[in-house]
Amino acid sequence: MIASAAVVVVWLVTALAVGARVDARAARRGAVIGAAAAFSLSLAAIPVSSGTATAVVCSAFCLAGLLVAALSPVASHPPRVLARALALVGLACAFTVVRVEVVDAALWAVTAAVAWSGARDRRLFAVYHVPSVLLVLAGSVVPSPAGDVLVLLGVAVRAAAVPLHSWFPRFVARTPTGVVAAFLLPLGLVAPATPLAAAVGAGAALVGAVFAVVQTDGTRAVAFLLASANGVALVGGARPAAAVAATGLAMTAAALAARRGPLSLTAPAGDLARTPRLAVAYLGFGLALAGFPLLPGFADVHHLLAHPAGFVVAALVVAVAVDGVTVLRGFLGLFAGRPEDTGERDLTPVEHGAVAVALVLLALGGLAPGLTGW
């Protein structure tokens, strides 16, 4: 617990330091240094932690935070916005320090307040997330099973489970991606492990996958892929590899949009030969999120197929398959265009370093799960 608390302190101190900067590029460099320090500390804490599972989740959150710090576009993530994203990562790690429902509810409220301060459409966000916070707070003090139902309703709002999803595509489109990705990290830790939660999550995963595959805008497709992944989290709880993969995919799409502008999937665009690192990052994180074989997401999904409810299993199978189609469609639509010299830059060395670390660990988590705990 002490080690995880130290990780939280590092994140919050880094957020304060970054928010005090004036120059956006200097702020991002400081964010990467602080994120790397927090991730290293979280890895060192795993062997001495009394709760190894939660320590691994904390390390995954820290790795996701490193991706947020390294891939956040400077134009859309000035120092104060980037600081909010880093604070949300630190608060996500705080969920792993003390596993008490009342503490979870308090952190749920704080993370919603931080995300609200970084959202551009604050009124719409408040309409959905004030009830979410109140439901989780009430569920933390009401005895089960009624309390579990209240918590599930509150978590389903943040998970963008249909029909509570209308706020989410606009939130993703109009809010800095680093804030979006960090805001979603603690979902699996708060969702109750009940049959009702599994049914709601399976339905959300399936509907999110169907919505994602029909999108013509790359950013909206990623938004619904995240919603589908959130649904799986309601079924299976916290999944370290999925947290890293979802964050990596969202941040890669944000980095690409910052270079190219709107991401249209109506016709092939981009050039794989000119941006190979961006392409590999998009495909690698996307396939890991979709549960491709030999990646850790596959083991997660395989484990969930043992669920006793037939509807849950069937919905997850279809959702995972459709998510894979969406990822491949996005990859071909964004990187299989004609070779034209548009001046589009590939990942910078700092961005590439963070992506390489994350993809290597995801690959190890699929090939040798015992090495990473994933």
TrEMBL record:
<feature type="transmembrane region" description="Helical">
    <location>
        <begin position="180"/>
        <end position="213"/>
    </location>
</feature>
<feature type="transmembrane region" description="Helical">
    <location>
        <begin position="81"/>
        <end position="103"/>
    </location>
</feature>
<feature type="transmembrane region" description="Helical">
    <location>
        <begin position="353"/>
        <end position="371"/>
    </location>
</feature>
<feature type="transmembrane region" description="Helical">
    <location>
        <begin position="124"/>
        <end position="143"/>
    </location>
</feature>
<protein>
    <recommendedName>
        <fullName>NADH:quinone oxidoreductase/Mrp antiporter membrane subunit domain-containing protein</fullName>
    </recommendedName>
</protein>
<feature type="transmembrane region" description="Helical">
    <location>
        <begin position="55"/>
        <end position="75"/>
    </location>
</feature>
<keyword id="KW-0812">Transmembrane</keyword>
<keyword id="KW-0472">Membrane</keyword>
<keyword id="KW-1133">Transmembrane helix</keyword>
<feature type="transmembrane region" description="Helical">
    <location>
        <begin position="279"/>
        <end position="299"/>
    </location>
</feature>
<feature type="transmembrane region" description="Helical">
    <location>
        <begin position="233"/>
        <end position="258"/>
    </location>
</feature>
<feature type="transmembrane region" description="Helical">
    <location>
        <begin position="29"/>
        <end position="48"/>
    </location>
</feature>
<feature type="transmembrane region" description="Helical">
    <location>
        <begin position="311"/>
        <end position="332"/>
    </location>
</feature>
